[in-house]
Specification:
The chain is mainly beta. Helices cover about 0% and strands about 55% of the residues.
Length: about 120
């Protein structure tokens, strides 16, 4: 079955950096767009960044442009999110996501999330 396992979150001071990882299994990793989302309590999940299966194209949300970089290593079935110049408003649970077509339906799969806290 599809599994997504995030790691790399933690407490960091404003201006600091973190690198999140998401190890994937149970599907043909290099065939799918991978996404990072984040969620704060009381709000819905918002898309942070996406990357195509080959890694040839990536997109970031406006708040992430110039600070966050999504990448992937298809040999390791892992997607990364490098976060620099972190701000307190980046505090959230960060989730790895993939949307997979199974038969006639698409299914969203999520990891368990990793907490990122930006605070002095």
């Amino acid at each position: 079955q599809v599994q997504l396992v995030e790691s790399g979150g933690g407490l960091v001071q404003p201006g600091g950096s973190l690198r999140l990882s998401c190890a994937a299994s149970g599907f043909t990793f290099n065939s799918y767009i991978m996404n990072w989302y984040r969620q704060v309590p009381g709000k819905g999940r918002e898309l942070v960044a996406s990357i195509t299966g080959t890694g040839g194209s990536a997109n970031n949300a406006d708040f992430a442009k110039g600070r966050f970089t999504i990448s992937r290593d298809n040999a390791k079935n892992t997607v990364y999110l490098q976060m620099n110049s972190l701000k307190p408003e980046d505090t959230a649970v960060y989730y790895c996501n993939v949307n997979i077509l199974r038969g006639w339906a698409t299914h969203d799969y999520w990891g368990q999330g990793t907490q990122v806290t930006v605070s002095a």
